[in-house]
Specification:
globular, binds 5-S-methyl-1-O-phosphono-5-thio-D-ribulose, 16 strands, seven-stranded mixed β-sheet, alpha/beta, 42% helix, four-stranded mixed β-sheet
C-alpha cells in the first residue's frame, strides 16, 4: 500500500501524523497556515523535502486566508505567512526554497489579480509535490547502481517516503535496488532522540518486506569492524557548495566510522537540498531542540529531574567523508565543489535562470 505522507484535499492539507507512528496511523488536517507551521515545528511532518512541500501548501492556505483586497496589502500579509513558515525549522533549505518558489509565482501572477494568484500558487505547490516524487524515482534509478547485489546497507534517521512526497531519497535508492532484484539487507540506526529509524524507517521497510534489522546508534562501529556493513546511505537537510552535508545528528559519526573502515558513505538528496549560498558546512544553521526530547523516552523520564540535556537536531559531515552525492540530475563525484556547481548551473541553464 502506498504511503500518503501528505495530501492536498478539498483545500486542506492532510498529514500522516509521524509522531504517532508506528503504533497508530492517525491524520492531522491543516486548514490554516498556522496549523501547517505547528505541524512542522512539532514534527507531525518531518524530513527536508516533506517540510518544504508542507510549507508550500502552507503558503497556499495563507493566500486563501488573506483578507487583503489589493496586491500591496496581500503581499504584506503573505510576507508574514512566509516568515512564519520559514522560521519553523532552520536547517533544511528545502523549506526556504519552497516558500521562495511560491513567493516568485505570487509576484509573477500579480498583474492577473488576486484570485488568479491564489490559483497559480496552488498549482505550483501541486507541481512541487509531483516533481519531488519524480526526483526521488530518478535518484533511485541512478543510485541503485552503487548498491551491489548481496550487500548490507546502513541507514540513519528516515529519508523515505515519509520524509518526502513519496518513494524517498536514501530509502528510494534502497527501494530501487530491491526493485532491480538485488538481494539486500538494511541495518537501521534507531536514531535517538526521536527514533526516526526505529519508528519510521523500520515501519516503511517492514511494510514492503525489505529485509532489515534494527540497531541502536552505538552498534554501527562494531558491525563495521566485523565486515557486516558494505555501504551507508543517508539523506540530507542541506548541502553546502563544497559538499559538506547537514543531516540528522549522528550522521557525522556514521560517516567517520565508514571512513575509518573504508566503507562507501553516500548521500542521496534532490538538488533543492543544495544551497550554493552556503560555502561550507559550518555556515549551516543547526536547529537546537528541547531538552525533554533527550532526557525522556516516549514520554517517560530517563534522567534525574533537573538534568541538563544537549539536543542539536543535526550535524555536519565534512565532504571528505562522502564517496558520492546522489541527486535526481546525476551522481556527483569528487571534487564536489566543482561538480556541484556543474550540475547546478546546467540545471539552472535548462530552467533559463542564473544561479548565485
Ligand atoms: O528531524 P527530521 O526527522 O526532520 O530529520 C530528517 C533527516 O535528517 C533526514 O535524513 C533528511 O531530512 C532527509 S529526508 C529525505
Amino acid at each position: 500500500m502506498k504511503i500518503k505522507t501528505l495530501e492536498w484535499k478539498k483545500n486542506q492539507l492532510i498529514l500522516l501524523d509521524q509522531t504517532k507512528l508506528p503504533l497508530q496511523e492517525a491524520y492531522v488536517t491543516c486548514t490554516t497556515y498556522q496549523d501547517v507551521a505547528t505541524a512542522i515545528r512539532t514534527m507531525v511532518v518531518r524530513g527536508a523535502p516533506a517540510i518544504g512541500l508542507a510549507a508550500s501548501f502552507g503558503m497556499v492556505l495563507g493566500a486563501w486566508q488573506a483578507r487583503a483586497r489589493d496586491s500591496q496589502s496581500f503581499c504584506r500579509e503573505m510576507e508574514k505567512v512566509a516568515r512564519t513558515l520559514a522560521d519553523t525549522r532552520p536547517t533544511a533549505v528545502n523549506l526556504i526554497w519552497a516558500v521562495e518558489r511560491l513567493q516568485r509565482v505570487m509576484n509573477e501572477q500579480m498583474p492577473q489579480g488576486l484570485t488568479k494568484v491564489k490559483q497559480a500558487m496552488q498549482r505550483e505547490a501541486l507541481r512541487i509535490q509531483k516533481e519531488d516524487i519524480q526526483a526521488n524515482q530518478n535518484m533511485g534509478k541512478l543510485g541503485q547502481i552503487l548498491v551491489p547485489d548481496g550487500s548490507t546497507i546502513l541507514t540513519h534517521c528516515n529519508a523515505g517516503a515519509l520524509a518526502t512526497a513519496g518513494y524517498g531519497t536514501a530509502l528510494g535508492v534502497i527501494r530501487a535496488a530491491r526493485e532491480a532484484g538485488k538481494r539486500i539487507h538494511v541495518f537501521v540506526d534507531e536514531t535517538r532522540p526521536l527514533l526516526q529509524g526505529a519508528r519510521l524507517t523500520a515501519w516503511e521497510l517492514t511494510r514492503e518486506r525489505i529485509p532489515c534489522t534494527l540497531i541502536t546508534d552505538n552498534m554501527a562501529g562494531a558491525l563495521m569492524a566485523q565486515g557486516k556493513i558494505h555501504l551507508a546511505i543517508v539523506g540530507a537537510d542541506r548541502i553546502a557548495a563544497n559538499g559538506d552535508v547537514a543531516n540528522k545528528i549522528g550522521t557525522y559519526s556514521v560517516a567517520f566510522l565508514c571512513h575509518g573502515h573504508q566503507i562507501p558513505f553516500y548521500v542521496a538528496a534532490p538538488t533543492s537540498t543544495i544551497d550554493l549560498f552556503v560555502k561550507q558546512g559550518d555556515a549551516i544553521p543547526i536547529e537546537q531542540r528541547a531538552e525533554w526530547e533527550v532526557n525522556t523516552l516516549q514520554g517517560r523520564r530517563l534522567a534525574p529531574r533537573g538534568m541538563k540535556a544537549f539536543n542539536p537536531a543535526f550535524d555536519i559531515t565534512p565532504h571528505r567523508f562522502i564517496r558520492a552525492i546522489i541527486t535526481e540530475k546525476g551522481i556527483i563525484q569528487r571534487p564536489f565543489q566543482r561538480n556541484i556547481k556543474k550540475i547546478f548551473f546546467s540545471q539552472k541553464e535548462t530552467e533559463g535562470k542564473s544561479g548565485p
